[in-house]
Amino acid sequence: MPLFLSCPPGCTDANSHWQPVCWSWPSFYIKTSIFSRIKVLTASFVLHRPFLPIFRWFDKSFSVVIYKNGKNGLNAEHSWADAPTVAHLWEYTLATDAFQLGYMEDGHCKGEVERSLPPPQRLVWDIPSEVQAQICSSLAAAQTLADDVDCHVFPFRDFGKGQIKKCRISPDAFIQISLQLAYYRDRGGFCLTYEASMTRLFREGRTETVRSCSNESCAFIKALEGEETKEECRRLFRQASEKHQNLYRLAMTGAGIDRHLFCLYVVSKYLGVDSPFLKEVLSEPWRLSTSQTPIQQMELFDLKNHPDFISLGGGFGPVADDGYGVSYIIVGEDMINFHVSSKHSCSDTDSHRFGAQIKKALADIMTLLSADAKTSSSSKGAVRSKSK
To answer: Domain Choline/carnitine acyltransferase: where (predicted)?
Structure first.
C-alpha cells in the first residue's frame, strides 16, 4: 500500500517535511456537521487532499481526518467493507459523542481524565536515498491523480423521499431514472450504469450490481425528450420504475449477474481458458457509477430537531476516465445530498454541469408525476360530488 510523505518537488530531506495531519485508524465517506460554502473543499480534502495528497493511509481500514476548526471526516479504504458498514460506525461515533457523552461549558470532554496513558511519541524514520527518490516520484504521480478530480457536492432541497412516496414510486428508482435522464441530456446518449446493491441477506455478503440503464428507462427518456403525451410518459416511467425495483430485488437476493460473471472470469483465468465473451463484457466501461449511502441505520437522533447534525454523506471518484461517480444520500423526508465526481482531464465531463442536469431531471420528473396526482385527485373529487 502506498505511503506518502510531504515531499515537495526537489526535496532532499523527507524527514524535515513530515507533518502528521490524521491518525492511522480510518476512501471515501465524509461526515461534517453542517453545510457551508466550503463543503466541496471539505469533501475533496477528506477524499484525496488536493494539492498535497499525503496522509491518507490505505494500508489501514480507515483514517480520521481532523481539522483545526474541529470538523472531521472519515477516509475509508474500500476493499474490506462497503459504505453501510463504515457509515454506521461513523454515525454511531458522532451521535454518541454529541448526545450521550457531551462536553463541558469550557469545551472539554465530560468524564474523568485518564492520566496513566503514555504520551504520544513521534517516529523519526531513517529513509535511504533510493526510497526517498521513490517517495518523491510516487508523490508526483499521486499529485497528478488528485488534482484531476472534479468534485461537486450539493444538497437538493426542493423535495425528498416524502413527496416521491406520495407519487407511489420507490425513491431509489426515482433518483436512478433521474440520473439516466440527466446523463442523456448531458452527453446525448445512454451508458452502462452501475448501482451498488447490498447482499447482506447472506453471511459475509458484500455487493451486487444493479444495471440501472434498462430498456424501460431508455424508452421513458426517449418519450419524454421526444415530446410524447404526458400520459404516455407517465406510463413508461412507471414501467421503468417497476423494472428497476425488480432488478434491485434480484441483486439483493443473489440473483444478479455481475458477480456471477466475475466468478466465471476468475475460474477461466485459473484454468487458463480464454473467453472472448467474458473479456468483452468485463472490459465495458462503467461511465456512470452510482451508489446510495444509507444514513440513520439506527435511530440515533431526530434529524428535524437537530438540523445542525445533518451530514454531507459520502462520495467517491469516477470509475471511468470519461465518466461520472455519483453518490446520493436521502436525508429525512425533504432533502437529498449528492456527491458528483469526474476528471478535469476529460473535456466531455463537468461535475457542476452534471449536477445542474440532475437537479433539472429530478424537478421535471416530479412535475410530470405531480400533474398525474392532481388529475387523480380531481377525478376522485368529481366522483364523490356525484355520489352525494
So the answer is: 56-359
Active site residues: 78
Rounded to whole angstroms, what are the CA distances from 176 to 114, 182, 328? 50, 10, 10
* HSE toward the beta carbon, residue 316, CA cutoff 13 A: 22
Among residues of the chain, what percentage have pLDDT more than 70? 82
pLDDT at 309 (0 to 100): 78
Q: How far apart, in Å, are the Cα atoms of 336 and each of 20, 52, 71, 257?
A: 34, 30, 22, 29
* pLDDT tens-digit map of 335-379: 999 999 999 999 999 999 999 999 999 999 999 999 776 655 555
Q: What is the DSSP string of 344-380?
A: TT-TT--HHHHHHHHHHHHHHHHHHHHHHHHHHHHHH
Collapse the DSSP code of 314 into the 3-class scheme (helix H, G, I; strand E, B; otherwise coil) and give the result: strand
Report all structural domains of the chain as residue ranges with CATH numbers, in order of start: 14-102+128-147 (no CATH), 150-253+285-383 (3.30.559.10)
**Whether the predicted pLDDT of 22 surpasses 80:** no
Neighbours of 144 (CB within 10 A): 11
Identify the CA nearest to 300 among candidates 90, 86, 93, 95.
Answer: 95
Supply the DSSP string of 78-135, one letter for each residue: SSS--HHHHHHHHHHHHHHIIIII-B-TTSPBSS---TTSPPP-PPPP---HHHHHHH
Q: What is the mean pLDDT of residues 219-228?
A: 96
Helix residue ranges, H only, 148-207: 161-166, 171-187
Output 248-251 pairs: Cβ under 8 A, ≥24 positions apart: 248/172, 248/173, 248/195, 248/197, 248/210, 251/197, 251/199, 251/208, 251/209, 251/210
CA 241 to CA 177: how far, in whole Å?
Answer: 8
How much is the pTM?
0.83
- Residue from 13, 30, 43 nearest 314 by CA: 30
Candidates 230, 165, 168; CA nearest to 371 is 230
The whole-angstrom separation of Cα 143 and Cα 119 is 33
**What's the one-letter identity of residue 356?**
A
pLDDT at residue 235 is higher than 60 = yes
What is the rounded average pLDDT of the residues 244-265? Answer: 96
Sequence-separated (6 or more) residues with CB below 8 Å from residue 375: none
